[in-house]
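Example record for the data management plan.
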Amino acid sequence: MIPSLQRFGDRSWTQDKLERVRKYLVAYSTIMRKRPYPYAYIDGFAGTGYHELKQEESGVCLFPEAAEPEVEEFLDGSARLALQVEPRFTKYIFIEKCRKKAGELEKLKVEFPDKRDDIVIETAEANGYLQNLCNRSWKKRRAVLFIDPFGMQVSWETLKAVGQRKAIGTWILFPVSAVNRLLKQDGNIPDGWRHRLDTMFGAPDWFDVFFSRRRGGLFADSEDRVKAADTKLIGEYFNNRLETVFAGVAPNPYTLRNSRNVPLFLLCFAAANPHAAKTAIKIAQDILKRDPAKTPNLPSMGDVED
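Corresponding structural encoding:
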């Protein structure tokens, strides 16, 4: 158990979700330590500013879920959690564009002296860094990537680049509540919001999926749009999009809710390596659906292909 996560009780929101990610990292590292490749844990947006909430020009804060204490603790705990996993990873890469927060991440080298030489703190914008990283050769390297994009910061081009490398398993904390908030009931979505959604989904067809056509009005040939999307449909659409660039996607994202039972995020998993996707999805799917206190079923080494 991670001491810093105990303040919410014996089985907190944060513990449950972090425990699911931890179990996958342990399973992954247990398998990969016997393979001939170095393997890294990569944390995109490792120390993102969840306290630095900015309002849109309308004066409305689009991402109030970022102020949820459980969300903050979940994200702050992911980097430390990875460093506590045994068997250990070959390398740890934490990406954070804010120099102050990157400096705070440097403290992890003191906290984990046995891993300090393998901890890399990159002060960079995550999308650009990840895309550049994916341009390198991955023939003899593997990694697990965790993305927690505050304010829908991750771009589809980044996810596409990760999927094309065929070497990086990816956990994504998809901000389903924030997306739902941008989808106005009448379909009249400001251009800035449309661009944000286009960038995240990588295609404009989300509008036709999330808004149904309704004929009528003052003129016989008029046609209105009405919102048909809920968090379930939004999640299904995002998972379907992931399937277009990854070799496999867990069909059962885990819904992260606040204390009022409102869905905030979906914890999604996508496997890029086509040779190992079946095994990776099997493990992730098992972890996502079962009690986090229980140990997932691990495949035999013969089930994992290079």
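Summary line stored alongside the record: The beta strands are 39-44, 91-95, 119-122, 142-147, 168-174, 211-215, 223-227, 248-249, 254-257, 263-271.
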